[in-house]
Write a structure and sequence with these properties.
By secondary structure, the chain is α+β, with helices and mostly antiparallel strands. The chain contains six helices and eleven strands. It has a six-stranded antiparallel sheet, with no helix packed on it.
């Protein structure tokens, strides 16, 4: 309070979470690509993300959605924690508990969700936990649907959302509701409450054990046998009767 004017003095927001802006993300993405000596076209071919999208992301002109940055991470053989860790923080192997204090995750504003990435200092972890603020309000077209390998979990902390699937199914979810699904199915989140909804999300890719099991089952699958040629049965000669 200003004693002379009787008005409150402006205060700086307390404990703001670190934010990974588009420019910083773009620099990290370009550096990762250059380490491989790849052109934009080569990375596009390996990741399935268009040259235009990668180029604009590297220049800080475009926010990537979850599907694209995970695809780029796989192509670059890069733990995405390194991409989203705070400045000067090098992810380490998970050899002990990793704590992310309240409001201390790394925030990245994607196309439809502002992601607060948690546990970013743990390299090679199987799960990718986030707190998300869903700022999308409508589905504009097929390009809004995200799909990626693995499974996904979402829990609504506040507000209400709709989860749209590309098979036409729509689920309405309120605070306390949760959802678990195969994330290969195209999906999109939108806020339908007055305030933007907040969710806790978790994605997990297919583990090596799962992949090996699936590939093993494919190898074990029996090959359909060719139908056997019909056997020719010779008719037995009638037994001779005694005294005939």
């Amino acid at each position: 309070m200003n004693p002379h004017t009787g008005t409150r003095t402006a205060t700086k927001p307390k404990d703001e979470p670190p934010t990974l802006d588009r420019t910083t993300f773009g620099h990290r993405l370009r550096s990762a690509r250059k380490r491989f000596g790849w052109t934009l076209a080569q990375l596009a071919e390996r990741s399935g993300v268009s040259i235009t999208t990668i180029s604009r992301a590297e220049r800080g002109q475009l926010a990537l959605g979850y599907e694209n940055f995970t695809a780029l991470g796989r192509a670059l053989e890069m733990d995405m924690n390194a991409m989203f860790a705070g400045a000067g923080v090098k992810p380490a192997q998970l050899d002990g508990p990793v704590v992310t204090r309240a409001g201390k995750g790394v925030v990245y504003r994607g196309l439809s969700i502002a992601y607060e990435f948690l546990g970013t200092t743990a390299a090679g972890k199987q799960m990718s936990p986030i707190v998300g603020t869903v700022h999308a309000r409508r589905i504009h077209g097929p390009e809004d649907f995200v799909r990626h390998a693995g499974e996904e979990f979402a829990y609504v902390l506040s507000g209400e959302i709709e989860v749209h699937f590309d098979n036409g199914e729509v689920l309405h979810m309120a605070r306390g509701d949760s959802l678990y699904f195969d994330s290969r199915l195209g999906h999109a989140y939108i806020s339908v409450s007055r305030q933007l909804a907040r969710i806790v999300g978790m994605t997990i890719g297919e583990s090596r054990h799962m992949q090996s099991a699936r590939e093993g089952e494919a190898r074990k699958a029996p090959v359909p046998a060719k139908p056997a040629a019909p056997k020719t049965v010779k008719a037995k000669a009638p037994a001779s009767r005694k005294g005939a």
